[in-house]
Amino acid sequence: MRFAVHVWTFLVFGCVICGVVCPPVTDEPAEEVETDPEAKMKEDAEMNFGLEYEHYLKEVLDTLESDENFKRKLEEANAADVKSGQIARNLDFVAHGIRSKLDELKRKELDRLRQILKLRSQLQSNGGNMDVFARMLNKDRLLAHLDHSNPNSFEISDLTKLIRQTTKDLELIDRKRREDFKKYEMEKEVERLEQLSKLDENERAEKEEKFMEMEKKHRDHPKLHHPGNEEQLKEVWEESDGLNKQEFDPKTFFYLHDTNGDGVLDQAEIEALFQKELDKVYDPTAPEDDMNERYEEMNRMREHMMNEIDKNEDKMISLEEFLRSTKVEDFKSDEEWETIDKEKIYSNKELEAFRKQREETKQRQQQKQLESEDGVNFDERRDQPVQVMHPQRQQQMHSIDTRGQHHQQQAADDLKPPQGRLMRTQGHPLSSEGHPRGNEHKRQLTKYKYPDQGHRGSLQGQKKALRRRRQQL
To answer: Distance (Å, rounded) from C-alpha 26 to C-alpha 67?
Structure first.
C-alpha cells in the first residue's frame, strides 16, 4: 500500500521507486494482514487531491501495484511514455487475476456513474437549477476517465484515459490554486482601499502609516536560503535532526527524511524540509503575517525544488536524483530566496478589472435581494413605461384629494370630545364663575352639535330641566 499514498504521481507519471525491494512471489497464499483503521483513515486523508473519481483511482492503483510484471515495465519506462499514456500498453502483461479485479472495479465505477446520471435526469425533469450542478453532472466530464463504450472489461483504453485525465485534472488543480491565491491577494487590496476611501484625510494618513509599518515589520526577517541548496539542507540537518552541521551527509539526510521508507521524497516530505525557512517569515501569532501566504510560499518552494532536482518529472525525488543534485555547482551557492511579498503577482490593470467585477457582483446581489423582497423582477420594473397625466386631469385629481382630506378632517373634529367640558375649572377665564355673562355662557357651552343626533343639552342641563318640571307639577 506504500504507493497508495502517491496515487496521483503513480498514475500520472508512473515512475516506480528505484531500489525498492519487494517480497518474492510464491505460490502460497499471502497471509491476511489486519488493517489499522486509524492508519487507513490517515492514508485516505493524505490521498485527498480533490478528484471526483479518486476512490476509483486508488483502487486501480492498489490492484496494479500487486502485479510485479507491470511494476517492472514501469521501472523501464520513461516519463514521456507515462505522461502520454503509452505505458498502458503493458496492461496486456498483467496476470489474469489482476485483469479480472480491474474488470470488477470498472463495473462498480460505471454503476456509480449511472446513479449520478440518473440524479441528473431527475433534476432536469423536476425543473431543478442545473447551473449549480452543471460541472459536477456533466456527462462528458463524468465519463472522461474511462472507456464507457465497453462496460464489461478494463482495457488499455481505460488505463490510458485514466492517466491522461488525471494528468489534466491535477494540472488544473495546481493552476486553480495559484489563481485562487491571486484573487485572494487582490480581494485584500480592494477591501483595504475601500476602507481608506471612507475615512477623512487625517484618519486615512494614519491608517496608511500603520499599514506601511506592518509591511516593513513583515519584510524585516532573516535571510532565506534557496530551497534545496546545501546551506538550507544543512540548517535542517542541524536544527531539525539535531546533528553536527560539519558532518552533513546527503545520503543519510535522504534516508532521515524519507519518513515512510518508500525510497523517494514525496510532496509532503519535501514540504516538511521548508518549515524552518517559513518560520523565519511567518508567525501565526503576528498580525502582520498572513498564513495563506505561508501556504503559497511553501508550494512555490516545493515546485522550485522539483524543477531543479526531479529530472524525470515523476513528482517525486529518488535517491539517485537527490545525490546527483548535490554534486552540481549550484548546490553550494547560497543565493537568497525571494519571498512572495517581494513579487508582484498582479498588475494594476488586473486589480482594476477585479474591482469592477467585484462591484458588478455586489450590484447583482443587491438586485436579487430587491426582487426577493417585493417579488418583482428589477429589470421588468425598470423597463415599464412611465405614465404621464394630463395637467387638467392632474388638477381634477388634486381637487378631489383636497375635498376628501377636508371631509376626513371635519369628521375627525366632530368625533372629538366637547372642549367646553374640559374648560369648566375653577378660575378659568371661560368658566361660569369667571365669565362676565355667567350661567348664560355656561348654557351655551353645554350645547354641542353631534353628527348623528342633532342639538341636545348636556346631562347636567337635562337633570336641571327635569327638576324644574317636577316643581311645576
So the answer is: 13
